[in-house]
Amino acid sequence: MSYKVATVKGIPIYVHITFLLVFLLFAFIFAISVWPYGFRYVEPPIARYILACLTALLFFVTLLIHELSHSLLANSYGLKIQNITLFFFGGISAIENPENVRNIDPSKELNIALAGPLSNIIIGAVLLAFNYFVYGSVFGVPDVTNWVTEGLTTFTANIPTMIFLLGTLNLLLGFFNILPIYPMDGGRVLRAWLAKRNTYEEATNTAVSIGKGFSVVLAVIGIFTNWWLAILALFLYISAAEEGKMFKATTILEDIVVKDIMTTEVLTVDESMPLVEFINFVFQKKHPGYPVIKNGRIVGMITVEDTRHINEAERYAFTVKDIMKEVVSVHPDATALDAFNEMGTHTVGRLVVLDSERNMVGIISRTDLMTAIYLKDNFKNKTNESQNEPQNEPQSES
Length: 398
Ligand SMILES: [Zn+2]
Known about the structure:
By secondary structure, this protein is α/β, with parallel strands linked by helices. It folds into three domains: 177 residues, no CATH class; 72 residues; 113 residues, CBS-domain, CATH 3.10.580. It has a four-stranded mixed beta sheet with strand order 1-2-3-4. A hairpin with a 2-residue loop joins strand 6 and strand 7. Helix 4 packs across helix 6, helix 7 runs antiparallel to helix 8 and helix 8 packs across helix 14. The site of zinc ion has 5 residues, from helix 2. Zinc ion (ZN) binds next to helix 2.
């Protein structure tokens, strides 16, 4: 649901559909709000809407500058940026993908994370300073008491208001993004700073905890001042927690090799098997998915899901071959994280494990990955506990 709008220095820029909706919402808010937050009394109405749309458009240009600041700096450090996608509030540069960032020097990551919010703070400061020095006030209009008689309801008289709005929004965006709440930019800055002294894993865990703590503080402030701030803080808390969980899962999966957790006893079906027979087979074996075989070679995958849309009568006419899907495979020596990513890209729940000669050696499912995460996580806690035991002994003796 993203549309390509431009390419800057070889980086394609996409706009997500939600972004267009927010653009319209912003333009609408600018059109109905009174000075200095909008253009409500500007005449004629067409001038009002042009000002509102122009402000929304320019604001989104500054959001793009924010993302480009991250991306171009990362580019200069030799990191490849696949694309930039503008979502509903702010954007995502493909660099913000933890796997890419993990392999770079923390001080470079710190600069990359800082570049975005810094660009907004600079833009904001410059725009407000422009109004101040040119019109004598950051609002661009020193006094609105004689609004109509002074002709402030015209298009040109409201350009300083537009500058004020853009400046203020950029400052807000910059300061908001710099809050140390992971996965926001400020949280990344914090993580990179911590990573200079600790391992990447410890740094992320600490940054996630600080982010959670900060969201709670923000929520408490919000409850007493502005409920929107409290709601926002709640979302930030959730995203920090999610990011923490995701990071933990990713770290665990990275250390596991596919062949260690795959299922080696694989039930297969022949491509010539009639669909009715296949459905009976599934009822007996109770597995959701099976590799499809032709002359001993694997030719496809079939799941119970694939048979759902086939009606009763057609089940007699079709064979497995007619509805099977293409094989998505992974090498036995690949990491579980590779398998996880592969499942994500192809939106499948299981992969066939094929060795270098394309022989099937096993099958790996999403459930296998989840079980592995669960077991590794518990096992890891167990080893930590046993490491702590000698330290605890003297305490119990005393
Ligand atoms: Zn950013």
